[in-house]
Amino acid sequence: MSCSEACTSGGFRGKLIVISGPSGAGKTSICNALLEQLPDTVWSVSVTTRLRRVGEDGGRSYTFVSREEFEQRERAGEFLESAEYVGQRYGTPQRPVVEALSRGQNVVMEVDVQGGAQVARTMPDSVRIFVLPPDSAVLRARLEGRKTEDAEQLARRLTIAEREVAEAKAGGCYRYFVVNDSLDEAIAQVKAIVQKESGAA
Ligand code: 5GP
Fold first, then answer.
1. Fewer CB within 10 Å: N-end or C-end of the chain?
2. Domains of the chain
3. What is the pLDDT of residues 26-74, one digit of tens each?
4. Cα(110) to centroid of ligand 1, in Å?
């Protein structure tokens, strides 16, 4: 989809912070910390067709919609990027992102590697960070521990995780890779990257 001139030229005062990484790598905890600890930083609420998990409120985590509604919004050109992940659709509404960046706010978004590649093209000035688990055993333990997926979904997410890491490393869309071994250290590293990219450090 087309993006305004400001998107491609990076003519915004705010920074778009793109966080990717395999399911269970700890992206959400890192994003939450960024939102709490960085001034003037807002969350990009994605739209998804997947089922809501226990504890997820509509509005903050995602806007949950039917596939029909998703596709209709996609056809209308509403998304900055969109992807299919484990059989479900995910997309980022463009307007709130552009509006916040224009106001000078930073925007944090969490997307898979397909989304990261699209944002790298349309918003080259974005700060794209890939969060890695220390190893695959830790990833499996984290995913099993959160008990949000059934066995089949879990197996699919683990397979995709390996592919995503390989794609992210080979693809060149991510300038930064952060290993989330200790959450506090990972948060500190991501914050330092954002501050450096914003010219604040
Ligand atoms: P989950 O179902 O675990 O919330 O998310 C599954 C995957 O979709 C994660 O890798 C997450 O980062 C990604 N995701 C969440 N929102 C979006 C989005 O708006 N666009 C894209 N491309 N991926 C998303």
1. C
2. 3-195 (3.40.50.300)
3. 898 999 999 999 999 999 999 999 999 888 876 578 999 999 999 999 9
4. 6
Instruction: Tell me how far the alpha carbon of residue 112 lies from the centroid of ligand 1, in angstroms.
Output: 5
SS3 94: helix
DSSP-assigned letters across all residues of 137-198: HHHHHHHHHHT-S-HHHHHHHHHHHHHHHHHHHHH---SEEEE-SSHHHHHHHHHHHHHHHT
Q: Has residue 16 got a pLDDT over 90?
A: yes
Write the single-letter amino acid at 62: Y
Retrieve residue 15's tokens. 């920074």
Residue 97 DSSP SS3: helix
Tell me, what DSSP letter sits at residue 56?
A: P
Please tell me if the CB atom of residue 81 comes closer than 6 angstroms to any atom of ligand 1: yes
**Rounded to the nearest whole angstrom, what is the distance from the C-alpha of residue 57 to the centroid of ligand 1?**
16
In angstroms, the first-to-last Cα distance of the chain is 34
Q: Is 23 in the pocket of ligand 1 (CB under 6 A)?
A: yes
Ligand 1 centre to CA of 46 (Å) is: 8
- Cβ atoms of 4 and 95 closer than 8 Å: no
Amino acid code (one letter) for 34: L
d(CA 149, CA 25): 15
Single-letter residue type at 33: A
Q: CA 153, CA 89: separation in Å to the nearest integer?
A: 15
Backbone torsions φ then ψ of 178, nearest 5 degrees: -125, 125
